Amino acid sequence: MPFSSVPTSVSTPKQDDLKSKISVLEAELNAVVRKRDTGLGDEGIENTIKKLRYDTDVKKNQLQNKIVCATNLRKFRVKQKSEILSLKSSHPNLQTSFLRTQPGRPSLKENQSGLLQVICDITTQGISAADRRRSEVLRTCKTLDELYTRLVEDGFSILQTSAYRRLIPKYSGSLEALRKDIKVKPEMILSVDGGPDENLRYNKVVSSCISHFKEYDLDGLFVFTNAPGRSAYNRVERRMAPLSRELATVVLPYEHYGSHLDSQGKAIDSYLELKNFQHASETLAEIWSQMVIDGHNVIAECVPPGEVLPETAQVSDIWYRNHVCESQYFPQIIKCSDNSCCSPRRSALKNVLYQSFLPTPFSMSQNPFRVLSPDEVESEIFPSLLVPQFTTLRPDFSQDREIP
After folding, report:
1. Are the C-beta atoms of residues 48 and 32 closer than 8 Å to each other?
2. What's the alpha-carbon Rg for the chain, to the nearest Å?
3. Most exposed residue of 213, 259, 283, 396, measured as fewest CB within 10 angstroms of its CB?
């Protein structure tokens, strides 16, 4: 299809791009046609020629449409300009209202002069002042500095930049807004699964929890783990199954840099033991780094040991009795009401847990006559937190039974 471009001094990037693509397609088409005429083509060369001709025609049609559209727009602008000039000559007042001598979009102050005044009227609704501003003005809106000062007076620990970010809903959940609050939230809930952490009645584990509780000035620390046989339902455990499968036939040497054990199997060289353990870790990291789980590459690396952590906090038996609630699956540590012992609470946790600790869960069911005791309940339905908080229902411990 023949096409011709209209001479113009304005750049036409889309037309130039189409022209370059047409030139490339025509060159490929000529090369394939010469290859077919010389008998060097394969069986699918005819389909290739048809496809190249079709693509070339499509690009030429697009280029012709753009050229025609540009020509029509140029004619329209010339016609519109002549009509405006005729209106200007017949109606001189139109020049100040609609005609602009400068290019570009007019500013809001020029195009909508009353917009800013309307915004001010909306934000300061309900206030009054004298014409010369000699009386006190009661403002309903505040600046960022005033808002930040009021937040600090109300007890909020937040930086000014974070307060600004939280005023914008779009960025309220951004990393910058969340990281500005330097202190840890007053309540912390930890889920542990695997290793010695599962034995939450172990003294060293409880001491570590107390250290975290004191270090971060928490109002409450709650640590929970799965009951026996429930670890298989943990999503993390299921996701780690492919990692264990890759180690089915792997044998890790324990004396790569030399034996660190004596004839009785006891460690005698701690430095050599650490080096051998590091080599085993590097071997595991190399194997796991070659895996792909659910379309995601596994990134594993051997991290050398860092500095030795300080000893865990040591507390008295009286402090332990007032702050710690032991349990096999759910230990709790909370602040007491004595300001000489603990710092003031930073949250309203006491309003929710007026009994200090979370109540013990127990299964229950209800019939038309009475509430069944735990021994008579066969289902595993547990009431919500509100039921034991606002009722006097408690499990029966008359037979010296304890909840783990």
Report:
1. yes
2. 39
3. 396
For the chain, the structural domain boundaries read 13-90, 109-182, 187-334, 359-404
> What whole-number distance in Å separates Cα of residue 149 and Cα of residue 154?
9
Q: How many CA atoms lie within 13 A of 109 on its CB side?
A: 0
Residues of the chain with pLDDT under 50: 1-2, 108, 115, 122-123, 125-140, 169, 401-404
**Of the candidates 233, 211, 190, which has an alpha carbon nearest to the alpha carbon of residue 329?**
190
- Given a contact cutoff of 8 angstroms between Cβ atoms, the answer to whether 225 and 200 are in contact is yes
Residue 137's pLDDT is what? 46
3-state secondary structure of 366: strand
Q: What percent of the chain has pLDDT over 70?
A: 61
Angle formed at CA 294 by CA 293 and CA 295, multiple of 5 degrees = 90
Residue/partner pairs of 29-32 with CB below 8 Å, 24 or more apart: 29/53, 29/56
Instruction: Give the residue from 39, 49, 53, 50 showing the smallest Cα distance to 1.
Output: 53
- What is the reported pLDDT for 365? 66
- Dihedral angle at the C-alpha atoms of 321, 324, 327, 331, nearest 10 degrees? 180
Q: Phi, psi at residue 222, to the nearest 5°?
A: -125, 125
> What distance in Å separates the CA atoms of residue 353 and residue 360, rounded to the nearest whole number?
12
Residue 243 confidence (pLDDT): 83
Sign of torsion over alpha carbons 270, 271, 277, 281:
positive
DSSP designation for 112: -
Using CA atoms, how far residue 26 sits from 39, 55, 61, 67, 270, in Å, is: 20, 10, 14, 20, 75
CA distance 257 to 89: 99
d(CA 53, CA 47): 10
Bridge partner residues of 261 (DSSP):
267
pLDDT at residue 261 in the model: 77
Residue 130 pLDDT: 45
Provide the pLDDT for residue 169.
47
Cα distances from 42 to residues 28, 31, 53, 225, 398, in angstroms, run: 16, 14, 18, 68, 93
Q: pLDDT by residue (tens digit) across 106-155? A: 664 565 555 455 555 544 544 444 444 444 444 445 566 776 776 677 66
pTM (two decimals): 0.44
